[in-house]
Amino acid sequence: MHQLVLNSIFDTLGWIGALLFLISYFLLISKRWSATSFAFHLCNILGGVLLSASTLYDASYPATFVNLAWAMIAGYGMYNDQIKKHKPDS
Predict the structure, then answer these.
(1) What pLDDT does residue 63 have?
(2) Rounded to an integer, what distance in angstroms lies between the CA atom of residue 90 and that of residue 84?
């Protein structure tokens, strides 16, 4: 029973992460979000982290690596965009 609950939890996390990736990409290509928007980056970070948790639980290490890298790249993008937004004009 305990294993079934854990499987369900991590599967759900993976599905939520996948949906976040798909939603953020759809909103980007439909021009509702920009590639520099906070929401776009946040969805990619959360999607990467949630999918990483799911794939790590399933011992799918290449997928875990890719999803963590995706989340870190999105975090880097968010950081750079926030720095540019708050940088005084010279």
Answers:
(1) 97
(2) 12
List, as one string, the DSSP characters of 36-74.
T-HHHHHHHHHHHHHHHHHHHHTT-HHHHHHHHHHHHHH
Give residues with Cβ within 8 angstroms of 24, minimum separation 6: 33, 39, 40, 43, 44, 47
Q: How many helices (H) and strands (E) does the chain have?
A: 3, 0
pLDDT over 50 (residue 12):
yes
Q: Which two tokens stand for residue 78?
A: 């968010």
Alpha carbon distance 64, 17 (integer Å): 12
Cβ–Cβ under 8 Å, residues 20 and 41: no
**pLDDT surpassing 80 at residue 1:** no
